Amino acid sequence: MSANIKNLENRLWEAADHMRANSPLRLNEFAEPVLGLIFLKFAGVKHSKTEKELAEKRKNKAKKLGGASVSRERPVSSADYHARGTLFIPEKARFSYLIELPEGTDMGRAVNDAMKGIEAENKELAGILPKTFQKLDNRSIITLLKNFNQIPDDIEGDAFGKIYEYFLGKFALADGTRGGEFFTPTSIVKLIVEIIEPYQGRIYDPACGSGGMFVQSHEFVKRHLENGQKTRASREIAIYGQEKTDQTVRIAKMNLAIHGLSGDIREGNTYYEDSHKSIGKFDFTMANPPFNVKGIDKERIKDDPRFSYGIPRADNGNYLWIQIFLNSLNEKGRTGFVMSNAAGDAGHSEKEIRQKLIEDGFVDVMIAVGPNMFYNVALSVTLWFLDRGKKRTNRKNKILFIDARNIYTQIDRAHRDWTDEQIEQITSIVRSYRSENGKKYKDIKGLCKVATIDEVKKSGYSLNPGRYIGVADNGNGDDGNFGEKVKNLHSEFKDLTDEAHKLEKKVFENLKKLDF
């Protein structure tokens, strides 16, 4: 990303965050209208570009006719814009119109009407755009409009998408533990996408949040289209998602639209509702589901065919999610998802399900990820990759384990990330294992190992990469990372302690309100 765009993102966020700090609105009430205004600016810029292109096309047509008038042609309509993959924006919904409204105008109503006007002209957005601007005062709306008007009109669509994702990430970070419900860090999503390789087909995310898996799948296809190929990347994939809250569905659909995409995103609780009738339907499934969820009503799902390996007796939703991901795939499908570390070694009924998954030949790659890579969990996680087509390959009796806990870039004290080079480092190991990149795979102590099903069986059907990889030998019997481990544990302990203090403070505040 260019330094100019990065600087612009920082300026835009600082201004919006300052306003948020001085607003009586809760974070989720503030986030949606802000994201809506970024969307509005993007849609207006794209509309203006298409408007010029259509005018130029008619002008050139007139020249070819020797200057003959083309006035008899039908007027340009929203259909002309839609044919070019552009949203049609009515005049009163354009940024330039709103920002010039006279003092004293009810700006909340004006922006709400702008959103309604866009939905009326673009049916795929019906009911999606935010219309809660009257919760903001006039001054705040005008300040936000001026803030986002800093985005230049000649900016490319990809840059707009990055600004939108940047704000999603910032809101997730500000929202702490709840932020992870709608946003997965882009680097994690990129790695999942690179490993499952969704070149073409139907993609499903039953816990889709803001739609990041779909956006990165589209980016993957664009990167891998051959030079000069005219096929639009968006035509290569079909998008299907589900989310339990209406607000998150709307944010996801705006995110898709700002990237020039559309998809079938439905509201529903995935534990109980299979809105897309998913069994055997998809080429790829990817997700970052909520971990270790308790209190799921198992009586409601006891006959659900998505849970073909059985309902785990433990009060935990992890192995329900794993079955949802696997059973939504067709016979050649792949899935990649984030999962709690505990799932790799869970016992009793969960172990029985895991054993069947392994013996049926579906488990392909397991990647251990270090702490502080997510906004909503400080602890380490594991990325699982299952492949229904694997048993027809020479990998059918093998599983690749990767320990990526020491691969990261420190962003700040409490957050880490992967660079594109680090993502490529991990991905290249997987592609060597699959014989996809012309490089011969080899085990590297402390980093990666291919284990046989028999080895996994002897290890109690554990899918914890640390069981197989070991530690790098630096000649003194220590893996050289003791200090780093202590630092990580201290950081995790401090984060948990800070969170406990915050919760304690909230409890006392609420008790005061109740006159305790």
Summarize this entry quickly.
The chain is α/β, with parallel strands linked by helices.
Summarize the helices and strands and which ones pair or pack:
Blueprint: H1 3-21, H2 27-64, H3 78-82, H4 95-99, H5 107-121, H6 138-148, H7 157-174, H8 186-196, E1 201-205, H9 212-224, E2 237-243, H10 246-258, E3 264-267, E4 282-287, H11 298-301, H12 318-327, E5 329-340, H13 348-359, E6 363-369, E7 381-387, E8 398-403, E9 409-412, E10 415-417, H14 420-433, E11 448-452, H15 453-458, H16 466-469, H17 482-513
Parallel strand pairs: 1-2, 1-4, 2-3, 4-5, 6-8
Antiparallel strand pairs: 5-7, 6-7, 8-11, 9-10
Helix pairs in contact: 1-6, 2-7, 2-10, 8-9, 8-14
Characteristics of this structure?
single chain; 516 residues; alpha/beta; nine-stranded mixed sheet; two-stranded antiparallel ribbon; 11 strands; globular
Please characterize this protein's 3D structure.
This protein is of the alpha/beta class and 516 residues long. 45% of the residues lie in helices and 13% in strands. The strands form two sheets. A nine-stranded mixed sheet has the order 3-2-1-4-5-7-6-8-11, sandwiched between helices. Strands 9-10 form a two-stranded antiparallel ribbon. Helix 9 links the parallel strand 1 (201-205) and strand 2. Helix 1 packs antiparallel against helix 6 (138-148), helix 2 (27-64) runs antiparallel to helix 7 and helix 8 packs parallel to helix 14. It is globular, with a radius of gyration of 25 Å.
